[in-house]
Write a structure and sequence with these properties.
The complex is a heterodimer.
Chain A lengths: L8 E5 L4 E6 L7 E8 L6 E6 L4 E2 L4 E4 L5 E6 L8 E9 L12 E6 L1
Parallel strand pairs in A: 1-9
Antiparallel strand pairs in A: 2-7, 3-4, 3-8, 5-6, 6-7, 8-9
Chain B lengths: L4 E3 L2 E4 L5 E6 L6 E7 L6 E7 L2 E5 L7 E4 L6 E5 L8 E8 L9 E2 L3 E5 L1
Parallel strand pairs in B: 2-11
Antiparallel strand pairs in B: 1-3, 3-8, 4-5, 4-9, 5-6, 7-8, 9-10, 9-11
The chains are: A mainly beta, B mainly beta.
Chain lengths: 111, 115
């Protein structure tokens, strides 16, 4: 599986935007970029995914570099409830594939 | 609540005992996954079912581990002769099998402590 690299931790102030980076220099042409997050004492939850174009949904935005070797998850206004571990995961399309989690980025949000 | 449920939420056992965990996926989801998560690490894949067929198993799933999904609905994960190294959070997820996203929905997990 292609590997992703994320910072171990990041901090943000509440109501400020947060940019969570992910490097995936060995991504293949058919790999989708998925983001999941895990709130304290809960199972992971889906956030967003994309292939080449930037994507927006109600939770976040995903900005994908033109060469696809990196991406950034954007939380437009962080709240205390966004404090979680964020995982960037590569996944092939059309397969019933497992999710391969790294150690993710632990986001702390302060008042 | 129509999410993924797991039972029990916590299990404490002595080394050498057998334990069994249950996962009830979202209704009509045909795919079911088991993961294990230790402290400070991301979840690690253990095994995957499509309906009642177990299609993939990780090397992490030793002979002491067995999983079933007898009628393609709920699943059980059994660990025989537990060891202290089995202490972890066991997570279950289900999905409906979309071609692209195939979003996995996770349960709250079963935390196993082996004394």
């Amino acid at each position: 599986d292609a590997k992703t690299t994320q910072p171990n931790s990041m901090e943000s102030n509440e109501e400020e935007p947060v940019h969570l980076p992910c490097n995936h220099s060995t991504i293949s042409g058919t790999d989708y970029i998925h983001w999941y997050r895990q709130l304290p004492s809960q199972g992971p939850e889906y956030v967003i995914h994309g292939l080449t174009s930037n994507v927006n949904n109600r939770m976040a935005s995903l900005a994908i570099a033109e060469d696809r070797k990196s991406s950034t998850l954007i939380l437009h206004r962080a709240t205390l409830r966004d404090a979680a571990v964020y995982y960037c995961i590569l996944r092939g399309a059309g397969t019933a594939s497992k999710l391969t989690f790294g150690t993710g980025t632990r986001l702390q949000v302060t008042l | 609540d129509t999410g993924v449920s797991q039972d029990p939420r916590h299990k404490i056992t002595k080394r050498g005992q057998n334990v069994t965990f249950r996962c009830d996926p979202i209704s009509e989801h045909n795919r079911l996954y088991w993961y294990r998560q230790t402290l400070g690490q991301g979840p690690e894949f253990l095994t995957y079912f499509q309906n009642e067929a177990q299609l993939e198993k990780s090397r992490l799933l030793s002979d002491r581990f067995s999983a079933e999904r007898p009628k393609g609905s709920f699943s059980t994960l059994e660990i025989q002769r537990t060891e202290q190294g089995d202490s972890a959070m066991y997570l279950c997820a289900s999905s409906s099998g979309g071609l692209v996203a195939d979003t996995q929905y996770f349960g709250p997990g079963t935390r196993l402590t082996v004394l």
